[in-house]
Design goal:
The protein contains 8 helices and 15 strands. By secondary structure, the protein is α/β, with parallel strands linked by helices. It has 2 domains: 205 residues, FAD/NAD(P)-binding domain (3-Layer(bba) Sandwich); 103 residues, FAD/NAD(P)-binding domain (3-Layer(bba) Sandwich), CATH 3.50.50. Helix 1 runs parallel beside helix 8 and helix 4 packs across helix 5. The longest helix is centred in the first third of the chain and has 14 residues.
Length: 326
Amino acid sequence: MKTTVAVVGAGPTGLACGIELERRDIGCVLFDKGCVVNSLYHYPTNMVFFTTPELLEIGDIPMTSMGEKPTRTEALKYYRRVANHYHLNVEQYTSVNRISGEDGDFTVHTTNRLGEEKLWQAQKVILATGYYDRPNYLNIPGEDLPKVIHYYKEAHPYYGHDVAVIGGKNSAAIAALELWWTGARVTLIHRRPELSDSIKYWIRPNIDNRIKNGEIKGYLSSCVKEIKPRTIVIETPEGEVEVANDFVFAMTGYHPDIEFLTAHGITFDPVTRRPYTDPKTLESARKGMYLAGVLVAGMHTNEIFIENGRFHGGQIAQAIAEELAN
């Protein structure tokens, strides 16, 4: 199978890359190991974005929402509509195992959901894989227990249970509040003396007041030392405590697949931990291979979101178009 450009990742940034390539009459195929905008699909069921609709738009297709800020369901519907409008060729549930070859003659090795392997030839490759499927682990005893969860979906299954939430940013605060509202007995553990300043202003007073009133038990300047089947052990400024626990939500963030990137010739600045890319074209140190979206920031995943990563498609597509024309 042949294509001019292979785009690895079909999230909003990957879709934006596909759109900009199609606009320049450059053939492309998008690959995703999950569904279209797979990361968004795995967001909490009732999530509301922190941003307004126009900042999530790609391909000059307007996004509408019932409220001031769009919901997860509205975003999923929007990106499906965009993919249909531009007739993007998306190979869903197809994993990219490795990419061999060189600029102008890459071979993309893929496996679909049926275990069928297929090779694709491409002149250029764009990596837009994001980071949401690589959680930051705590590396503590018991973290591999089935009750430890790195993705919060919804609160209902945890009604009437002792639930610990580890983390101090938006995702942790929202999970703790929704779990408490649903009737879970919630403990929030954060390693710093205060919750993050990045928590949105309309969420912060609520979580602060729940902790202050003791409705959510808060352990600040604390960390989980061990997870046991029925309890968790917490190291606090007053000493070690062991509390009842049925489920743990480790909302400790995510990171790019560095092993995959380095195995494919992507090199990183040892100090900033950012990959080397041309600031104009976003071409990596491996010629013909481009980075888009949060990958451009490397381990600094809090710097690039849909709102700014969506513009990478235009940069990269224009660079590819100019090179193909020469």
